[in-house]
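Action item from last meeting closed. Structure (247 res):
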């Protein structure tokens, strides 16, 4: 596959985001949401058959075109809720979005979700952040314990876009504890398919690039932001990845 690795741009990206997270006191801010996502990942890992479409880094990379198409297909959804067409979704627009999707959340849950996805602190959700937002809503409501709180959207489109991403995370979460650690990830990539072993140095570097707060663990939310930048979105009008806090 050549010498160019898709993660190459994530090293500086992770440093910028890690700095932003620390400056915004992220540990407490995201703890509640990340705990919910962790429990959801554990639940999904336990209910899975143990079979995965992914066996190595290469098998994930081969799915990039499909991932990218799925992301691009969400552009129309984003534009629908970006009512003033300024390229971001503010709190008012997000509340209208949740209302149209018939998602029932408390004000505190909505605020937690907004701040968790507004990773650059711009007080607006940009397109790539919106992908994360929509995925987290989809994931937290699947399956819903309340029949009245089911995401009302194109479920087939969301499933086709987000289920393979969740499957990627579950594949890397070798011990099924709902988060990634370095040992876990190396084991998943090197033992599942020995004939497609990923070099330890590369696997270690990839993990460090996703571990923004350098606590040795990668939550699903951290993974999702990194994964979107890893895959990339062709012809993205944003023209940038996650903005630099100094820009």
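Sequence:
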């Amino acid at each position: 596959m050549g010498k160019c690795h898709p993660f190459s741009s994530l090293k500086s990206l992770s440093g910028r985001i890690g700095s932003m997270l620390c400056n915004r006191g992220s540990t407490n801010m995201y703890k509640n949401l990340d705990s919910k996502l962790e429990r959801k990942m554990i639940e999904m890992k336990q209910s899975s058959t143990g079979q995965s479409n992914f066996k190595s880094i290469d098998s994930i990379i081969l799915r990039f075109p499909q991932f990218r198409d799925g992301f691009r297909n969400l552009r129309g959804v984003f534009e629908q809720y970006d009512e003033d067409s300024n390229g971001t979704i503010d709190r008012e627009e997000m509340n209208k979005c949740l209302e149209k999707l018939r998602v029932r959340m408390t004000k505190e849950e909505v605020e937690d979700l907004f701040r968790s996805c507004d990773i650059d602190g711009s007080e607006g959700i940009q397109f790539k952040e919106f992908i994360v937002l929509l995925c987290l809503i989809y994931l937290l409501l699947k399956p819903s314990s309340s029949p009245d709180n089911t995401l009302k959207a194109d479920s087939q489109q969301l499933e086709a876009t987000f289920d393979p991403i969740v499957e990627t995370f579950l594949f890397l979460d070798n011990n099924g504890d709902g988060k990634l650690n370095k040992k876990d990830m190396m084991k998943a990539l090197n033992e599942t398919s020995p004939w497609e072993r990923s070099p330890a140095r590369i696997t270690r570097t990839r993990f460090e690039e996703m571990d923004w707060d350098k606590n040795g663990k990668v939550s699903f939310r951290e993974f999702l932001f990194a994964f979107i930048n890893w895959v990339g979105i062709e012809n993205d009008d944003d023209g940038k990845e996650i903005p630099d806090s100094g820009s």
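Note appended to the action item: The beta strands are 180-181, 217-218.
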